[in-house]
Amino acid sequence: MLQIQLQVRETIDRPRSIDLPVNTALFDRHPCISQSIRDSLDRFLLTLCVLAVPAGVGVAQAQIVPDATLGEERSIVSPTNTGVQIDGGALRGENLFHSFEEFSVPTNSEAFFNNHSAVQNIFSRVTGGSISNIDGLLRANGTANLFLLNPNGIIFGANARLDLGGSFFATTADSFWFANGLAFNAANPENSPALLSVNVPLGVQFGRNPGNILVRGAGIDFSESDEQQSSATSIDRAIQFQTDLLESPTGLRVEMGETLALVGGTLELEGGLLKTPSGRIELGSVGTNARVAIESLNRGWQLDYTEVTNRRNIDFDRAAIAIASGEGRGAIRIRGGNVTLSGNASIVANPLNRGNGMGIDLNVEQLNVREGSRITVSTWGMGDGGNLNVTAVRDIELSGEASRLQANTLGAGHAGNITIETTRLSVLEGAQIASRTSSAGNGGTVTAEALDRAIFEGRASDGERSGIFSSVDVFATGNAGDIVVRAGTVWVSGGAVLSSRTFGRGNAGTVRVEARDAARFDGSVPNNFPSGAFTSTELFAAGHAGNVEVRARTVSVTNGAQLDSSTLAQGNAGTVIVEAIEAVFEGTDPNGFASGAFTVVTEDSTGDAGNILVRANTIDITDGATLSSTTFGRGNAGTVTVEADLVTLDRGRIGSFADESSQGNAGGVEIAADRISLIRGSEIVTSTEVAVVESTAGDVVLQAESIQLADGATIAANTQSRGGNVRLDSHATILQRGSNLQTNAEGNFPGGNISIDTGVLAALDNSDLTANARNAAGGRVVINAQGIFGTQFRNAQTPDSDITATSALGPSFSGTVELNTPDIDTASGLVDLSANPVDVASILNTDPCAAGRDSEFYITGRGGLPQIPDVIFPTTATWVDLRDVEDVEEMEMSDDRNSVTLPVMSPVVEARDWYVNTEGQVVLVANTAPENLGFLQGQPTSCLPRN
C-alpha cells in the first residue's frame, strides 16, 4: 500500500494535505512510463500518478500536470529521486514548448527540463486555474533560457532555486506573442494557432486581471557591506560579502551575464533574494491588458514597457535583495506603480573588479525608500560604476536612518551619476542621497529635479542629517561630484543639508539650487548644525571647496540656516551666489548663530575665502542675519557684492573681515542699488584686526540713488593696519540718530579715506563722518555735494554731527577734509515785494469782467497786477515827459471836426498763458499764439470773455 499526499491549496498561503491509500498492485511497472496504463487511467488518476513514487524510490512531490493542448507533442512528466523530469513538448527550431495544467515544485523537490542541448528557449505555460508554488529547484540542460507563464500567479518560496545555463523569465501574462500574430496562450490555449517555426517572442500580453508574483526568503542584512567605511580592510570585507552572496545557492540566481526577469501584477519580495553576477534583473508590475515587449541583447533581454498604460505595485520588505554585482555590466531595471523598499531592503548593482557597471534604472509612479533600505550603484574596482536613474510620475520619498540612494566609488573607477526626476521629492528623518569617492576615482553628479517641490528635512535619531551629500574621503584623490537641485519650490530645514565636502586630496563639488518659485533654507539643530547648502575643504584635506549657487524667484535663509563655502585645510573656499527677485536673510538660531551667506578660511588653514554675490530686486538682511567673508587663517577674505533695486538692513550685517589670528587681507564690500537703507545698528563693514603692513582692510563702495542710515547704523572700513576706504556715490546721503561713516585706524597706520559724491548730504542727531587714526596720521575726507546739512568739519568729535580726520598724536598729524559745494548766490533772482499787501477782496469785487459769473484771482507777489481805480496810488517814482514849449511843433488843426476818427482798439482780455520772448522776457498772453500777438505784446490785460 502506498500513501499519496495531495496538497490542496485553499489560498495562496494555506496549504492542506489529504492522504489517499492506493493499492500498488495496480501498477506492475511505474505508471508514468507505462503507455497502456496512461491510456486506461482517467485524467484524475494521471494527476495522482505524478505525485506518487513507489516505496523503493522515495516520494516525489512535484505537482506538475501536463495538459492535452499540444496533442501528440504534449509534455511527459516522470518522477525521479529528486522530483520530476519533464520530457517531450513541441520542438520548433531552437524553441521548445511545454503546456501544463498545474505547475508547482514543493520544498526540496525539483523540476528538471530534460531538453536537447540545441534548445535555446523553453516556453512553459500553465493553463489550469491554480497558482504555481515553487519552493524547490528548476533545472534545465545546457544554456537554454526558461520562460514560465502562469496568469493565475506565481509564488517562489524561501527554498526556490534555479539551475539554468541561460536566463529565467517568470510572468503572469496570458500569452507570449510572436511575429505574424502568433501567440502561445495560457488563458485560452484552445484558441492558440498551430505552433510554427518561431524565434524569440516579441513580448508578453496580459489579460484583464494579471496574477501576482511573490518571492519569499529569510532576508539578508546588507549592512555587512557597509559603504560608509572606506578602510582597505572594510572594502575587502564588503567585496567578499557580496561575492559570497552571489555564489551562494540561496535565492533565485542565474548565471553570470544572464537575465532574471519577473513581470506580473503586484510583485512582492518578502525577504526574497534575486541575484545575477554581472547580469540583468528586470522587474515589472503591470495592470489590465498590458503588453510588454522583449528586446534581445547579446546576452539576455531587456523589457520595453512603451505600451503599458497602467501599473501595479512592487514591494521589497524584510531585508529583500535584488543584486546584479560582479565583474561589471550588472544592471537592474524596475517598472511599476508604487514601489516601496522597507525593512532594510536593498537593490544593488556594484562592479567589484575591472568591468563597468550598467547601473540601476527605476521608472515608477511612486517610490518609497524607508527603514534603512537602500539603492546602490557603487564601484569597488577599476571599472566605473553605473548610473542610478529614478523617475517617478508622482512622488519619491526617502525616510529614516540609513535609508539611501547612493552611487559611490571605493576603487580606481569613477562613480556613476544619480539622476532623479519626479513631481515631489522628500528626503526626511536622516535619509540621504549620496555620491562619494574613497579612492582615485571621481564621484558622480547628483541631479534631483521635481516639478512641484523638493523637501529636505530633519535628521535621524543617531544624528544623521537628511539631504544630498557629495564627498571625497580621507586619503582619496578623486574629486567629489556636483549637486544640482531643480524644483518649483526647494525647502531645506530642520538640520537638513545639501553638502559637498572633501576630506582628501580632491576637490569638493558645486552645490546648485534652482527653483521657479522659492528656495527656502530654515533652522538648525542643537550643537550648531544649521540647515543649508555647504561646500568645504575639511580638516587635513588638500583640495578646493566648490561654489554654492542658489537661484529662485524668492530665496530665504532664516533662523540660523546658512549658505556656506569654507576651507578648513589647504585649499580655497568657493563662491556663494544668490540670484532672485526677492532675497531674504533673517534671524539667528537659538544659540545666536546668524542666518546668511558665508565664505570662511578657518584658523590654521591655507587658502582664500570665496566671494559672495547677491543679486535681486529686493534684498532684506534683518534680525542678526549676515553676509560675510572672513579669514582666520593664511589667506584673504573675499569680496561681498550686492546688486539690487532696494537693499534693506534692519539689525543686519554685510562685511569682509581679516581676524587677528589671520595672515591675510579683508576683502571689499560693493553694493549697487537704487536705494540702500541701514537702520537699528546695521553694519556694512570691512575690517582687518591684523596689525602688520601686509594686511589691509578692503574698500566699501556704495552706488545708489539714495543712501540712508538711521538709529546707530554704520558704514565702515576700519583697520588695525593700513586703512580701507569708503566711497559713496548717490543723489542723497542721509545719516540720522547716531549713524556713522568710518575709516578709522587703531594700529600704527593712517586712517582710511572717505569719498562722497552726492547731491545732498545730511548728517543729523550726532551722526559722524570720521577718518581718524590712533598712532598715525588721520585719513582724508572728500565730499562733493550740492548741499551739506547738519554737519561740519571739526577738529574733534562733539555731541553734534561732525566730520573729522584726527590723530591721537596731535593736530599736526590730522588728515584732510575737503567739502566741495558749488558757489551759489542765494539772493540771485529774488525780487523785493511791496510792503503793502494787496486787498484781494477789493479786486474780486471790482472786476469789470466778472458780471454774471464767478471771479478768479491768481497772484504771485505784486508784479503784473493792474492798478485799482478806487485805491490811491502809492508813492512811486513816475516818469514824466517834459519838454520846452518852443520845442513843441504847432499842431495842425482840422476844420472838419466830424472827420476825426479814433483808432479801433482790440478788447481787453484776461491773461491765460505766458511765454518767453526773444529778449528773454516773460510775456502774459490770452489764447492767441505768440506769433499772432501783434501789438498785444507788452500790453497789460485784465479780462477775457469766457466761452
Give a written overview of the molecule.
The structure is a single chain. The chain is mainly beta and 947 residues long. Among the domains are: 63-205, 3 Solenoid (Pectate Lyase C-like); 639-825; 842-865 and 905-947, no CATH class. It is built from 4 helices and 70 strands. The chain has a 20-stranded parallel sheet, with no helix packed on it. A 10-stranded parallel β-barrel has the order 47-49-52-55-58-61-59-56-53-50. A 5-stranded mixed sheet has the order 4-5-8-11-14, with no helix packed on it. β1 (2-9) and β2 form a beta hairpin. The radius of gyration is 46 Å and the shape is elongated. It starts with a strand and ends in a 22-residue tail after the last strand. Residues 1-60, 848-853, 860-864, 875-880, 885-902 and 928-947 have low confidence and may be disordered.
β-strand percent reads 35-45%
* Helix/strand class: mainly beta
Distance between the termini: 134 Å
Total beta strand runs: 70
Helix content: under 10%
The rough form would be described as elongated
**What Rg do the Cα atoms give?**
46 Å
Number of helices: 4
**Mean pLDDT score:** 84
- Oligomer category: single chain
Q: Regions with pLDDT < 50 over 5+ consecutive residues? A: 1-60, 848-853, 860-864, 875-880, 885-902, 928-947
Largest sheet report? 20 strands, parallel
Overview in brief:
By secondary structure, the protein is mostly beta strands. The protein is 4% helix and 42% strand.
